[in-house]
Design brief:
The complex is a heterotrimer of chains A (about 325), B (about 600) and C (about 350). Chain A is built from 13 helices and two strands, in the order ααααββααααααααα. By secondary structure, chain A is mainly α. Chain A has two domains: about 90 residues, no CATH class; about 230 residues, MetI-like fold (Orthogonal Bundle), CATH 1.10.3720. A two-stranded antiparallel ribbon of chain A has the order 1-2. Chain B is globular, with a radius of gyration of 23 Å. With about 600 residues, chain B is α+β, with helices and mostly antiparallel strands. Classes of the chains: A mainly alpha (about 325), B alpha+beta (about 600), C alpha/beta (about 350). Chains in contact: A-B, A-C. Chains A and B meet through α2, α3, α7, α11 and α12 of A and α6 and α13 of B. Chain A: Belongs to the binding-protein-dependent transport system permease family. Chain A: It is found in: Cell membrane. Chain A: Keywords: Cell membrane, Membrane, Transmembrane, Transmembrane helix, Transport.
Chain lengths: ~325, ~600, ~350
């Protein structure tokens, strides 16, 4: 077990290294191949008024004229030993892990990521609990009342939930509940949990529901399918033959087995979500990682993009590991080696 | 150079930072509206529509309250030495005082310059090469220390370091008579810079230019003159702790998230005749989704969209349909022109007749529709927008659906009676520019000019493609969508960077086609002319000369559709920025 | 009222489907006493498993339409409430399913599943139930039961799993035990062990045992009575001796002929039954077996028009066949039996 975890962690590190190289390449190598020069890159990060000399100097300052391998090496080095940054009036040391300074805002990336993480965590935590509970219970009920009005209605809503993107449902929800009925917080009203838990929840309830709706729908469908399958299993018949109450048959024998794939997907979904719920955060103007990423991409701010990508990849890789470990706990037939 | 403004791209998912305006930065997008305008637009609609254009709406002297502002994305910087956004120049005056600023008044009156940190406007000498300002007495920073002329000098010199402060304009770099060995305040701190700026005493600052410029007060109004004491300068990190000289100081600085400003108790109303400083505090939320931002202004949860470039398409529709909202809307013409550059480097556009053929054949109404209709812009007849001094209507070319006969005649004169083939670029991620390119493709096809359209991403458009003469020439691209907004609203601020052939650089240009010695000569005359009226007239002549040479096809003068906030007092559009003035605002 | 321990009278279990009514069990009657064993034999789809689930009341609340009577120890179960029957399930009547790998929950240990079965009907501490489970496992012949009690089903061999399944069924000392194909998934030697075990246990528990199988061989040594089912109906019902020594139905002959025996290659079938089991929706007119019956021609044309009665042939031996009794006996004595024996 311990060796397994160690092996997986090493694998995760390799994966992160690969992700970082690919991201770097997408950003640098691909445009270079298309004929974009180092000064063209620098042109993105200078003011409109920049003279050619300025552009050249900025190119040097950002190290954009170095070979990509050197730039990548510098970036990696920053993570492990930190980096130096000339902020004009002096030089600042950016301690490890230093994911570099934004080309645009000149802020070190790592503290900004940490600053945005709680927002995304809050969003992910609330939404995932809601969608898991709602999705699974609707799915179970639908499976048990298969073909009923409830089942058909729920699956219809689930289908729409799966098909409607959050920027649509989110905007509708905002205009309906925040601006129409005025019962929920408007967008951009995020309050940290540590500041005021009640307002925290109030400010997040609509984003939670929006995000949860999207996923709950998928989970309802999954749970329904899983339950229909498990409830037809022989061991369910055995449980009934023992004289077990139907409610216990469903909960202890049916749901337990049907939940296994749900747990797997849930783990991965949460992992992905921790990297930022890009659409939801943008619709509700939540200053989380997803919003950070959109800003970074729109300004082509490489250090930010790299930092965000690494963090998101880290969450996904870790979620995979956790899910695999969890899977062994949930299903005794799975043994890790 | 040009000032940027913010707007959010139209599509629901595209939440990218979008700088409206022409010159725009890496992720620019067109201003405001896209929906078709009602027939009555521009005319006096229901009571209240456009009331903010020429009047102070809801006037009040009541102090107190929180003014709530928001913007779709953070702007470049709150450091006065490192910012090039119109909204930022407008807003920063609540915490920073330049030597001179724009009169907080509605409409054209807002373009008038008034002394701010200085007692009076600049005093010119040495044939407008030397400009002297005297600071008011009793000026203090938020920490209680006195503001001196040395701080103004330091602030101006500091931001000349464009590798550190990449964002701001370069007017001082270009015009100050700097010693040759001066590099930056950081790298060459010991070089004597008195040849550029002198501070004979703590109240006096004297600027020495390398060539005469009669409109230097416009430079003195740049945020670069907001004082910064050398002791407090932390380079690029200064933006985290900008030392207030205005009535408000930063309380919270969370870039990308929010800024809050509270009263600066060291600011003295007696030293400041132009600021009322009504609200107790400002709350500025950053990164608010565009549609949500509009909704919050409509509902009253928010007072002001800092970007000031207009509402999203969804809200435009609401404004058109809802009389109550309509009464809260203003639709100013802004100092921004959308146009199409014709590139004489590429045959057959080296022949003026072929360029004229394009101008005659273009369907201007269709172009206007492409750029968002009547609420979003008026059909342009030249580069210079109507609000700017020196503007005169030029009707050399049709402003309706085009004139095929004249276009064909021009083609014949050009030696291409059957038309020709050409390539046009546009910003692929901007639906309006794509629509404009397609509109032109259709109308030119009628006279036999076949356009091939080629889109490029906004972020690379000026650095690598349409703004790079070598690329355009090599790839034989004769036409490019373009846009430009003024740094300040006079001929110099608007025209100097887009018609003066000597400003064309290796890349990042907004002008490719205007390379005319006659135009350059007029620009030089205008620089030197001390009399404002005469100077304006010269800029007007230059504008006409450009049209005579048929170097550009003007499309529209942009208009913004702005909403006045609920419970906001003293709200009006200032002619200086074509958005609401942020100095006069108060809360009911 | 009835004097039999288990008395099934005219049991009908029908399932309405989109394609029509499926008559899985269509008028079935039989009796069983404690300490006795009944073998229900038939191909898949003959209704034998549906019958067993019907007795346990597992069709209640579903789509099935059930009529007739099931008397167990003086209680009628068809009309009894679902909750009441549930309480009898596992306690008074228990079931051993085929293929214990799928019949046991993969996520719970064998012990947990036995403990659960016990504690449904006995309010005892978990420790007590666990002790009971260990005892049971020991009793069904699982070595080191105190250790194996914590194993998961997939960690057991097939035979061990079946033993565990039996232990689970026995956990509440049931008086009626139904074993549905208890040995199908097992290899031949293990089959014998399991059957021995069941016989021993039945004796110890004095339970009534129903063994459901498609294989007459399984019940040959165990059953006192044998019921042969075809198309949801009994086609022959009698003592084991009746069925093995004096079978009168052509289908039974076929089953006897296809009985795997240790002295034969398992693939060898002497009297193969041609064709496939009938559809339960469109049951063939007349005798349900006639399309597959070799002797159909000797029924005087009644085979496909009249449904034969289940009639007594001799001393409680019941047969559902149009062939005249003498003819059947003659065929058995002259054509079938010599064939089977010579093989």
């Amino acid at each position: 077990m311990v060796t397994y975890i160690i092996r997986r962690l090493v694998g995760a590190l390799v994966m992160l290294a690969v992700v970082s190289m690919v991201t770097f390449s997408i950003f640098f190598v691909v445009p270079r191949l298309a004929g974009v020069t180092a000064t063209d890159f620098a042109n993105r990060y200078v003011g409109r008024a920049a003279t050619q000399e300025t552009v050249v100097e900025v190119t040097k300052k950002l190290g954009l004229d170095d070979p990509v391998v050197v730039q990548y090496g510098r970036w990696v080095k920053g993570i492990f030993v930190g980096a130096e940054f000339d902020y004009g009036a002096g030089v600042e040391h950016c301690p490890a892990p230093c994911f570099g300074y934004s080309f645009v805002t000149k802020k070190p990336v790592w503290p900004e990521l940490l600053d945005r993480l709680p927002v995304t965590l809050s969003l992910a935590a609330g939404a995932s609990v809601i969608w898991l509970l709602a999705g699974v219970s609707v799915g179970v009920l639908s499976a048990l009342k298969r073909g009923s009005v409830f089942d058909r209605g729920a699956m219809m809503i689930a289908l729409s939930g799966v098909s409607l993107p959050p920027f649509f449902t989110g905007l509708i929800a905002l205009s309906l509940f925040s601006y129409g009925l005025r019962i929920t917080a408007p967008g951009g009203a995020y309050v940290p949990l540590t500041e005021n838990p009640v307002e925290w929840a109030y400010s997040l309830i609509l984003p939670w529901l929006t995000l949860a709706f999207l996923n709950a729908a998928a989970y309802a469908r999954l749970t329904r399918a899983g339950m229909l399958e498990t409830m037809g299993e022989d061991y369910i018949r055995t449980a009934r033959a023992k004289g077990l109450r139907e409610s216990k048959v469903i909960a202890k024998h049916g749901l337990r087995a049907a939940l296994t794939p749900i747990v797997t997907i849930f783990g991965l979904d949460v992992g992905i979500l921790l990297g930022g719920a890009i659409l939801t955060e943008n619709v509700f103007s939540l200053p989380g990682l997803g919003k950070y990423a959109t800003g970074a991409i729109s300004t082509q701010d490489l250090p930010k993009i790299m930092g965000f990508t690494m963090l998101a990849a880290f969450f996904i890789v870790m979620a995979n590991l956790v899910v695999d470990l969890l899977y062994a706990v949930v299903d005794p037939r799975v043994r890790l080696s | 150079m040009k000032k940027r403004t913010l707007a959010v791209a139209a599509s629901g998912a595209a939440l990218a930072l979008a700088l409206s305006a022409c010159g725009g930065g890496d992720t620019t997008s067109e201003p405001s509206g896209s929906a078709a305008a009602p027939a009555s637009s521009g005319a006096a609609g229901p009571a209240g529509f456009n009331a903010g254009l020429d009047n102070v709406t809801n006037p009040s002297d009541k102090k107190g309250g929180v003014l709530k502002m928001a913007v779709t994305e953070d702007w470049d910087s709150v450091d006065p030495g490192d910012t090039y956004y119109g909204m930022s120049w407008n807003l920063l005056r609540i915490y920073g005082r330049p030597l001179v600023t724009y009169n907080p008044a509605p409409g054209a009156k807002g373009r008038e310059l008034v002394p701010d940190l200085a007692e009076s406007l600049g005093v010119a000498s040495d044939g407008s090469k030397t400009w002297t300002y005297k600071l008011r007495a009793g000026l203090k920073y938020e920490d209680g220390t006195a503001i001196t002329s040395k701080d103004v000098k330091y602030a101006v010199l500091r931001q000349l370091d464009k590798t550190t402060y990449v964002n701001g304009p370069t007017y001082f770099n270009d015009w100050l008579d700097l010693p040759k060995d001066f590099v930056s305040v950081y790298k060459t701190p010991d070089v004597n810079t008195d040849s550029a700026i002198e501070t004979p005493d703590d109240q006096t600052v004297v600027f020495h230019l390398n060539k005469p410029y009669a409109g230097f007060d416009n430079f003195a109004a740049l945020p670069a003159t907001v004082p910064i004491p050398q002791a407090k300068d932390t380079g690029i990190k200064y933006r985290d702790h900008v030392l207030a000289s205005g009535p408000y100081k930063f309380d919270k600085v969370e870039p990308g998230k929010q800024y809050t400003l509270i009263r600066n108790d060291q600011w003295d109303q007696a030293t400041d005749p132009i600021r009322k400083a009504l609200p107790d505090s400002y709350e500025i939320t950053l990164g608010v989704q565009g549609d949500d931002l509009d909704n919050r202004i409509i509902s009253g949860d928010l007072h002001i969209d800092v970007a000031g470039s207009g509402v999203q398409p969804a809200a435009i529709a609401s404004v058109q349909q809802d009389p109550e909202l309509n009464a809260r809307a203003d639709n100013p013409v802004t100092a921004r022109t959308w146009y199409i550059s014709l590139n004489p480097d590429v045959a057959p556009f080296d022949n003026i007749e072929c360029r004229k053929a394009v101008l005659f054949a273009a369907d201007r109404v269709s172009l206007q529709t492409a750029y968002g209709g009547q609420l979003a812009g008026e059909i342009a007849t030249s580069l210079l927008p109507a609000g700017i001094g020196g503007w005169a209507k030029i009707d050399t070319y049709p402003t309706d659906t085009g004139d095929e006969a004249k276009a064909k005649a021009a083609l014949t004169a050009c030696g291409q009676p059957n038309g020709f083939e050409a390539t046009m670029t546009f910003r692929a991620d901007r639906p309006k520019e794509q629509a404009a390119a397609e509109s032109l493709q259709q109308s030119l096809a009628k006279v036999g000019i076949k356009l091939t359209l080629k889109g490029f991403p906004t972020s690379e458009y000026f650095p690598a493609y349409a703004g790079k003469p070598s690329y355009m020439k090599e790839n034989k691209i004769g036409l490019a969508t373009n846009g430009w907004g003024a740094d300040w609203n006079d001929g110099f601020g608007f025209l100097s960077q887009i018609i003066d052939s000597r400003t064309i650089r290796e890349a990042g240009n907004y002008n490719l086609g205007v390379k005319d010695p006659a135009v350059d000569a007029l620009v030089d005359q205008a620089f030197a002319e001390l009399d404002t009226a005469k100077r304006d007239a010269l800029w007007g002549q230059a504008d006409a000369k450009v049209m005579e040479g048929a170097y550009v096809l003007p499309a529209v003068y942009a208009k913004g559709l702005l909403l006045r906030g609920k419970g906001v007092t003293n709200q009006f559009i200032t002619g200086a920025f074509d958005m609401y003035d942020y100095l006069a605002l108060g809360v009911e | 009222m009835t004097e039999h321990f288990l008395d099934v009278k005219n049991l009908q279990i029908h399932f309405p489907t989109d394609d029509g009514l499926v008559r899985s069990v269509d008028g079935l009657s039989f009796q069983l006493e404690r300490g006795k064993t009944l073998g229900i034999v038939g191909e898949s789809g003959s209704g034998k498993s549906v019958t067993s689930l019907g007795i346990l009341g597992l069709h209640k609340g579903g789509r099935a339409k059930i009529s007739g009577e099931i008397w167990l120890d003086g209680e009628e179960l068809v009309s009894a409430g679902a909750e009441h029957v549930r309480k009898l399930r596992g306690k008074k009547m228990a079931m051993i399913f085929q293929d214990p790998l799928s019949a046991m929950h993969p996520y719970y240990t064998v012990g947990d599943q036995i403990i659960e079965a016990y504690r449904i009907h006995h309010k005892v501490a978990k420790k007590v139930a666990r002790k009971h489970a260990v005892d049971l496992l020991g009793r069904v012949g699982i070595p080191q039961p105190d250790k194996r009690v914590d194993s998961y089903p997939h960690e057991f061999s097939g035979g061990m799993r079946q033993r565990a399944m039996i232990a689970m069924a026995l956990s509440c000392d049931p008086t009626l035990l139904i074993a549905d194909e208890p040995t199908t998934a097992l290899d031949v030697t293990v089959q014998a062990q399991i059957l021995d075990l069941m016989r021993d246990l039945q004796r110890d528990f004095d339970a009534a045992l129903i063994i459901i199988t498609h294989d007459l061989g399984v019940v040959a040594e165990l059953a006192d009575d044998i019921l042969v089912m075809y198309g949801g109906k009994a086609i022959e019902y009698g003592t084991a001796e009746d069925i093995f020594e004096r079978p009168e139905h052509p289908y039974t002959w076929g089953l006897l002929g296809s009985m795997p025996r240790l002295d034969r290659e398992p693939t060898e079938r002497l009297l193969p039954i041609k064709g496939s089991p009938p559809s339960l929706i469109n049951v063939p007119a007349g005798c349900a077996f006639h399309p597959r019956c070799v002797f159909e021609g000797r029924t005087g044309g009644k085979a496909n028009t009249e449904v034969p009665e289940l009639a007594e042939t001799e001393g409680g031996h019941l047969v559902r066949c149009h062939l005249p009794r003498e003819e059947r006996r003659a065929i058995w004595a002259n054509e079938i039996k010599p064939n089977l024996e010579s093989a």
